[in-house]
Design goal:
The protein is α/β, with parallel strands linked by helices and about 290 residues long. The chain has 13 helices and six strands. The strands form two sheets. The protein has a four-stranded parallel sheet, with helices on both faces. It has a two-stranded antiparallel sheet with strand order 1-2. Bound molecules: adenosine-3'-5'-diphosphate. Adenosine-3'-5'-diphosphate binds next to helix 2, helix 6 and helix 12.
Length: about 290
């Protein structure tokens, strides 16, 4: 199925996966519930890893749910037409996923007690991961070259828009009681501590054994062989299984194997310019 692309309020989306009507519905009419937990990310920032962690926390570390129910059924994507239908029918408490930038997120979030977990990742690793995955997941435009993809990434000519706008927009909520942010790098460096912090935010108490079970069952190796989580069951209409897989390398710093010095310098210049307003430090060099 050939994709067409359209811009909705300045952000690129693919059709028929998304539509302006549904995006407007999600923004203006979708009712966020007080007990919703949203897993929010820019694409390729560790969405599925976080989803696995949240699914396991919900089950006190018991892997039964993640081994028996497909990830997108455990946590529907609110802005995707299939996910929206599922989210509307989903009994409370819902676990939901979204890549929407903050300005397109359901307005009803503001007057709810729903919790947002925002995971972000070194943008050069996001770029490299997305470059590979754009050849796999059909909603993304197939890149012509890494050079042209770099320019698209830097200018935000990407489905879901600019990484810079996404991150600066969502991190504007930092300090709000119901907003929690964490990096992919923190999850890698200290998985146990990260799971404990997520539990604390969710008001969930797990024993040391339960935390260990969350970490183990959400590990790259466990997810890689779990058909419910590795996208191997995704339809050919959405994913070209010949071209690659969701769980590619799962490491920090892979950009060093792909970006030239010139490309890295070009990235850094835009990064400094776009991120200077954020008085925050991140666990990566750009
Ligand atoms: P790479 O392409 O760098 O390997 P998303 O879920 O947001 O689409 O992000 C996918 C990226 O997260 C991929 O990165 C994938 O390998 C990585 N990933 C998925 N599950 C992971 C896990 N359990 N541990 C570490 N990385 C994981």
């Amino acid at each position: 199925m050939e994709r067409e692309y359209f811009t909705h309020k300045g952000v690129l989306f693919s059709s028929p996966d998304y539509s302006p009507e549904e995006l407007s519905y999600v923004e203006n009419e979708f009712q966020v519930r007080d007990d919703d937990v949203f897993n929010v990310t820019y694409p390729k920032s560790g969405t599925n890893w976080m989803l696995e962690i949240l699914s396991l926390i919900r089950c006190d570390g018991d892997p039964g749910w993640v081994r028996s129910v497909l990830s997108w059924d455990r946590a529907p994507w609110v802005e995707h037409y299939l996910g929206l239908e599922a989210a509307l029918k989903y009994p409370s408490p819902r676990l939901l996923c979204s890549h929407l930038p903050v300005q397109l997120f359901p307005k009803s979030l503001k007057c709810s007690k729903a919790k947002i977990i925002y995971t972000l990742r070194c943008p050069k690793d996001v770029l490299v991961s997305l470059y590979h995955f754009s050849k796999v997941l059909r909603i993304f435009k197939t890149p012509e070259s890494l050079d042209s993809f770099l320019e698209d990434f830097l200018s935000g000519n990407i489905v879901y828009g600019s990484w810079f706008d996404h991150v600066t927009g969502w991190l504007g909520l930092k300090g709000s009681k119901n907003f929690f942010s964490i990096t992919y790098e923190e999850l890698q460096q200290d998985p146990q501590g990260s799971v404990r912090r997520i539990c604390h935010f969710l008001g969930k108490e797990l024993s040391e054994e339960q935390v260990a079970s969350v970490v183990e069952n959400a590990s790259f190796q466990s997810m890689k062989v779990n058909k419910m989580s590795n996208y191997s069951q995704m339809s050919d209409q959405l994913l070209d299984h010949q071209q690659g897989a969701l769980l590619r390398k799962g490491i920090c710093g892979d950009w060093r194997n792909h970006l030239s010095e010139g490309q890295s310098r070009r990235f850094n210049a835009i990064y400094q310019e776009r991120m200077q307003g954020l008085s925050m430090t991140f666990p990566w060099d750009c």
